[in-house]
Amino acid sequence: MNEKHDSDCRSKYTQKLSHTSLTQDEKTEATYHMGETNDKDIHSCSCVIPIIFQYLPAKDLLCAQRTCKEWQAELTPPSPAATWLYQSIVASRWPWAKVPCLTSNDDNGATYAEAINYAERMKELYIKSQYVQESLLPTVWSDNDFRQSCKYGKYSRWVLAKQFDDGAFLIDLAWAVRILYCLGPQAYLTLDGADTSAYDPAFSTCASDSPGWRLISNRNGYSAMVQQQLLLGKDSYASLEILDQVMTQGKHVHNGPRKPLIAHILEQQPEIQLTKNKNLSRAMDLEEHTKLLSFLLRHPESRMGLLWDVDGVVCRGVTLLAKEWYGCWDTLTDIDEPHFRQIPHMFNMAKLGQHVEALSWDECCGF
Hints:
This protein is 55% helix and 0% strand. Helix 6 packs parallel to helix 7 and helix 18 runs antiparallel to helix 19. It is elongated, with a radius of gyration of 25 Å. The two termini are 39 Å apart.
């Protein structure tokens, strides 16, 4: 980097720096290292740029990326600053979600190759997640043929209401399925042959010889003990709260990127014990959510099946599936036994979550 170029970079950077969220002391230290306070110490900005970048939030890193070609290269994988950039962007875009951590089998820390792979993985996660939610979803949901086919189904016609026109509620449904699968009762994955049964969206739309349906057809086997295994604790009940709010309240936020209902739940009801559950990271994993949402958008039969499952549970009252009374949920009033027709739909949603998690990233998001 020649002297004139360094001077230009310093000038552009200090303009960006004045608008960042750094403290005054941090800004003073940064401009000192840039050579404005003491040119004898550091004559080139290149050696301190990676350090400075680690203090900046995502929006300022994006500005820095557009400042000059050298800074753009510094914020491109495999550089350490690129890892920070995409971690910051993902965290600012989806603050309620969990993202993969940089891990290593080496006691001395991550190798250079592992760091490169992680930076590329974070970049792809950001690009693909944004594409699925902001491009693929509205494109798929604008397909009038699918929307019209929903009006013929007993449990699918609810999506014809105007508040569902943007299709954003599918983001909520995907989070609900993840929470139910990861935090819900294991009984939905083991009882009634569920441990050996393969996921099939056809099980959602008609009675069949499948998990849940067999259980309710043999009422002698549907004992009080079995029933208790199917009820949801406080953490997993968040999934039913999401389904209920999607259908009965149609909550939508239009100011900027739409927050899913789980984000509002975590913000407004901190007493919910989600943060203490060891499986929370799995339930709120952004990669897995993106896989599931993409799978639903690319497989209309599974999308239709989920619509049936949601209404099949909600129309009979989600509170019937609560293990006990939870004061944090406004909708929870009475405790009663589940309606027997809710049970197959709960099995189907849990199996959907299990099926998609077993698929690879490329199988779901390889486009």
